[in-house]
Design a protein that fits this description.
Strand order of the largest sheet: 3-2-4-9-1-10-13-12-11
Strand content: 15-25%
CATH class of the largest domain: Alpha Beta
Number of strands: 13
Shape: globular
Helix content: 25-40%
Largest sheet: 9 strands, mixed
CATH architecture of the largest domain: 3-Layer(aba) Sandwich
């Protein structure tokens, strides 16, 4: 019978570079910086690592495990490179955790690193490949998520102004938190009026509704839970690791409603079952979710059962997801303030969860956190891969 990963694996060290336009840093530089911060946090040395996983979404960031072994000088250790869209970093964590849980290795390293600024990626002119071969949509990512926003407004009876105002609360919240985060790319607060009146990218999404393009890397050191307190008194334990890939048919289904993400909902259900969570809104202390666009964060709140269907507006406007609210979301500043160096994002979220759970988040510290959830979505509203990770003390 299949077993759960719950409380079998612990995170004993994490590291994260500053995210931003790192013109003076190579992928190798970022890997070294994140890895050695994680090693220092864990109080271990590189020679203690038995195996490693490296995540790159973009081939120019690295194509094999040699990008990690060569950079760090790992001596003939197994290194696996993983790519799973925006869930890449979380999938590296999942694979490494299973290797620890089954007893194959004692200590492993997980790294996600991406150098996007040098590629000139801006986010607008792209084609989105779907899961079915030879079928692509010639539409931008902002355009696809804008369709999600207008569909949501229509379904739940929001006027254009009401919907726009609802979404504007999300970047205001995230920028408030990100302004206090020394590792964030964008560290400036914005007002509701600034967000609502910002230049439109794809209506109703303005520039403040869209995350930026950044460089960055993050890393984690894992051991078996039974060994964790030999390294530190406050290890962070993995409660659930779930990834859900939809059947890549959403863009061709007449019944796809563009107001929910089925893979997110199902990944959340699986993660809650694994972690033993019955009431996510009450039991989850904080969350870092995939706010590539403000509408995605709003819909994820409903998919993860933090808000009832069609009611996220009430929670956003009441401040329920603010740093001092009932369930803080994006205490780090989120993708909105960090940008999205794809493979690094999931592990950057884990870094924030560990900082919060260990009481090291400074002015953005969540009060008495017990469980933290991270969610990554790779793809677009109709066809995607979604990861859901839950950690706690």
């Amino acid at each position: 019978m299949a077993e759960s990963i719950k409380d079998k694996v612990a995170v004993i060290g994490v590291g994260c570079t500053n995210f931003g336009e790192l013109w003076d840093k190579s992928v190798s530089d970022m890997i070294v910086d994140a890895t050695y911060e994680a090693l220092g946090d864990a109080g271990v040395e590189l020679k203690d690592i038995d195996a490693a996983w490296i995540g790159h979404w973009c081939e120019t960031s690295g194509m094999t495990g040699l990008g990690l072994s060569g950079t760090l000088g790992l001596q003939y250790k197994p290194v696996t490179r993983i790519e799973n869209a925006c869930a890449t970093g979380s999938d590296c964590l999942r694979n490494a955790s299973y290797a620890i849980a089954c007893g194959v290795y004692d200590m492993v390293l997980v790294v996600g690193a991406e150098k996007l600024k040098d590629m000139g990626i801006a986010g607008l002119p792209n084609q989105v490949p779907l899961g079915t071969p030879n079928l692509i949509t010639a539409i931008s990512a902002p355009g696809l998520f804008a369709m999600m926003a207008t569909s949501y407004f229509h379904r739940y009876g929001l006027s254009p102004q009401e919907g726009k105002r609802m979404l504007s609360h999300i970047p205001v919240k995230s920028h408030h938190n990100g302004a206090m985060n020394p590792k964030a790319h964008f560290r400036r607060e914005v007002t509701l009026e600034q967000v609502m009146n910002s230049p439109i990218i794809a209506w109703p999404l303005g520039i403040f509704d869209c995350c930026g393009t950044s460089d960055g890397a993050a890393a984690a050191i894992l051991v078996r839970a039974s060994e964790a307190k030999k390294f530190r008194p406050d290890p962070v334990y993995i409660k659930a690791l779930q990834i859900c890939a939809n059947p890549a048919d959403g863009a061709r289904r007449n019944d796809f409603d563009f107001t929910h993400i089925e893979a997110c909902y199902r990944a959340g259900l699986a993660a809650y079952k694994e972690a033993g969570i019955k009431n996510p809104r009450q039991e989850v202390s904080m969350a870092e979710v995939h706010d590539c666009f403000s509408i995605n964060e709003a819909i994820v709140m409903e998919d993860l059962q933090f808000s009832p269907r069609g009611k996220v507006k009430d929670d956003l406007e009441s401040g329920f997801f603010n740093l001092d609210g009932g369930l803080p979301v994006q205490a780090s500043g989120g993708l909105k303030c960090f940008g999205h160096p794809v493979a690094a994002t999931g592990l950057r979220m884990l870094y924030e969860m560990c900082q919060q759970l260990q009481g090291k988040a400074g002015p953005r510290q969540v009060k008495n956190p017990k469980l933290g959830l991270t969610e990554n979505m790779g793809g677009h509203p109709a066809d995607n891969v979604v990861s859901c990770v839950i950690v706690g003390l």
